[in-house]
């Protein structure tokens, strides 16, 4: 059977970093509060000339380099983002043009922080359905542009950045030992919209709006939703937590990551944590975490890797793949 196999990965971060202490003169907060409640120590913040498209392009080029490919090899680009350069056209098409690619097709996918997990699951279907052989899956965000910088309960949590994977169709045996995407489970429930949303949009206010979040409410739901969707994915693949080599969760909050891993019985040393370095970069967080764990030699070819995310909507999902 056809499998969607990871051929390369890449990342890009804005030049400027902001430490927790940099917020102390802006809002009533402290490095100690932010570290204790979230695990975040710094985040990258885009300058005016750094956009979702430019960061996405840089991450895509890095992923193509690591795959030993050029844009000519790619059939499809899926960009997961909630902070597009324009309301339309899709920023994926802008990235396609920046890459000098005038063949194939490109579209954006909007599932907030779950966007990258949704995009990998979608790319896998395009590949297995025979509509594309090589897909660039990108998560790129500039949440700094939609933050209310006077709201201490949200502005300290988010950062900007981008990450990308190149997936390629390869023949597999249909077994759990195959490389590539092995199982996926996606969920959403719009009843929770008011707990995490942006208070503007083209069809309502005609403005971009700002991120609003009832953090405590999101937290209350997060661990249960994450563990449910992961257990569904384990069930589909016929594995248990012990079989995993690496757990690469969405990087929103270290306490949510720890509680989810504990509930699932995933050993602490198998959990990739980068929330301290990047903050919550929404759809970019999972591919950025992957890039760190691949670069430092933890994730290697043949490893069984579980990706997971949960975010606005609510949306949530998990993808199991063999690297
Ligand atoms: N500095 C200092 N104090 C603060 C800050 C801050 N930056 N922000 C809030 N506080 C205060 C609050 O006002 C509150 O004060 P009060 O007790 O006097 O009312 C107190 O700290 C505790 O606030 P809580 O909201 O209860 O703090 P909590 O421990 O829940 O941590 C946090 C807040 C970090 C937001 C947490 O709830 C969280 O991580 N939630 C989930 C976020 C998440 O996972 N989002 C999903 C993905 S995001 C996406 O999809 C876009």
UniProtKB/TrEMBL annotation:
<feature type="active site">
    <location>
        <position position="250"/>
    </location>
</feature>
<feature type="domain" description="Beta-ketoacyl-[acyl-carrier-protein] synthase III C-terminal">
    <location>
        <begin position="236"/>
        <end position="323"/>
    </location>
</feature>
<dbReference type="Pfam" id="PF08545">
    <property type="entry name" value="ACP_syn_III"/>
</dbReference>
<keyword id="KW-0511">Multifunctional enzyme</keyword>
<feature type="active site">
    <location>
        <position position="280"/>
    </location>
</feature>
<dbReference type="GO" id="GO:0033818">
    <property type="term" value="F:beta-ketoacyl-acyl-carrier-protein synthase III activity"/>
</dbReference>
<dbReference type="GO" id="GO:0004315">
    <property type="term" value="F:3-oxoacyl-[acyl-carrier-protein] synthase activity"/>
</dbReference>
<feature type="region of interest" description="ACP-binding">
    <location>
        <begin position="251"/>
        <end position="255"/>
    </location>
</feature>
<comment type="pathway">
    <text>Lipid metabolism; fatty acid biosynthesis.</text>
</comment>
<dbReference type="InterPro" id="IPR016039">
    <property type="entry name" value="Thiolase-like"/>
</dbReference>
<comment type="function">
    <text>Catalyzes the condensation reaction of fatty acid synthesis by the addition to an acyl acceptor of two carbons from malonyl-ACP. Catalyzes the first condensation reaction which initiates fatty acid synthesis and may therefore play a role in governing the total rate of fatty acid production. Possesses both acetoacetyl-ACP synthase and acetyl transacylase activities. Its substrate specificity determines the biosynthesis of branched-chain and/or straight-chain of fatty acids.</text>
</comment>
<comment type="subunit">
    <text>Homodimer.</text>
</comment>
<feature type="active site">
    <location>
        <position position="113"/>
    </location>
</feature>
<dbReference type="InterPro" id="IPR013747">
    <property type="entry name" value="ACP_syn_III_C"/>
</dbReference>
<dbReference type="Pfam" id="PF08541">
    <property type="entry name" value="ACP_syn_III_C"/>
</dbReference>
<dbReference type="GO" id="GO:0005737">
    <property type="term" value="C:cytoplasm"/>
</dbReference>
<keyword id="KW-0275">Fatty acid biosynthesis</keyword>
<keyword id="KW-0276">Fatty acid metabolism</keyword>
<keyword id="KW-0012">Acyltransferase</keyword>
<dbReference type="InterPro" id="IPR013751">
    <property type="entry name" value="ACP_syn_III_N"/>
</dbReference>
<keyword id="KW-0963">Cytoplasm</keyword>
<dbReference type="InterPro" id="IPR004655">
    <property type="entry name" value="FabH"/>
</dbReference>
<keyword id="KW-0808">Transferase</keyword>
<keyword id="KW-0443">Lipid metabolism</keyword>
<feature type="domain" description="Beta-ketoacyl-[acyl-carrier-protein] synthase III N-terminal">
    <location>
        <begin position="107"/>
        <end position="190"/>
    </location>
</feature>
<keyword id="KW-0444">Lipid biosynthesis</keyword>
<protein>
    <recommendedName>
        <fullName>Beta-ketoacyl-[acyl-carrier-protein] synthase III</fullName>
        <ecNumber>2.3.1.180</ecNumber>
    </recommendedName>
</protein>
<comment type="similarity">
    <text>Belongs to the thiolase-like superfamily. FabH family.</text>
</comment>
<dbReference type="GO" id="GO:0006633">
    <property type="term" value="P:fatty acid biosynthetic process"/>
</dbReference>
């Amino acid at each position: 059977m056809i499998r969607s196999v990871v051929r390369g990965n890449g990342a890009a971060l804005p030049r400027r970093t902001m430490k927790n202490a940099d917020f102390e003169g802006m809002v009533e907060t402290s490095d100690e509060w932010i570290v204790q409640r979230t695990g975040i120590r710094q985040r990258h913040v885009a300058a005016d000339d750094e956009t979702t498209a430019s960061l996405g392009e840089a991450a895509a080029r890095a992923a193509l380099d690591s795959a030993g490919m050029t844009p000519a090899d790619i059939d499809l680009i899926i960009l997961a983002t909630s902070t597009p350069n324009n309301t339309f056209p899709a920023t994926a098409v802008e990235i396609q043009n920046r890459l000098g690619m005038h063949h194939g097709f490109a579209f954006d996918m909007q599932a907030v922080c779950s966007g990258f997990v949704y995009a990998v699951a979608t790319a896998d279907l395009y590949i297995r359905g025979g509509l594309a052989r090589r897909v660039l899956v990108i998560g790129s965000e500039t949440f700094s542009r939609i933050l209310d910088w006077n709201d201490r309960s949200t502005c300290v949590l988010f950062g900007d950045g981008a990450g990308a994977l190149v997936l390629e169709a390869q023949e597999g045996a249909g077994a759990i030992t195959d490389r590539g995407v092995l199982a996926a489970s996606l969920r959403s429930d719009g009843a929770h919209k008011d707990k995490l949303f942006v208070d503007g949009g083209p069809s309502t206010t005609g403005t971009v709006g700002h991120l609003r979040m009832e953090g405590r409410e999101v937290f209350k739901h997060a661990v249960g939703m994450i563990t449910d969707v992961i257990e569904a994915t384990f069930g589909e693949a016929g594995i248990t937590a012990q079989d995993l080599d690496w757990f690469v969760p969405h990087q929103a909050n270290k306490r949510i990551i720890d509680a989810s891993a504990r509930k699932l019985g995933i050993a602490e040393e198998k959990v990739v944590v980068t929330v301290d370095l990047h903050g919550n970069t929404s759809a970019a967080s999972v591919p950025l975490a992957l890039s760190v764990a691949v670069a430092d030699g933890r994730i290697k070819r043949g490893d069984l890797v579980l990706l997971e995310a949960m975010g606005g909507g609510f949306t949530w999902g998990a993808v199991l793949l063999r690297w």
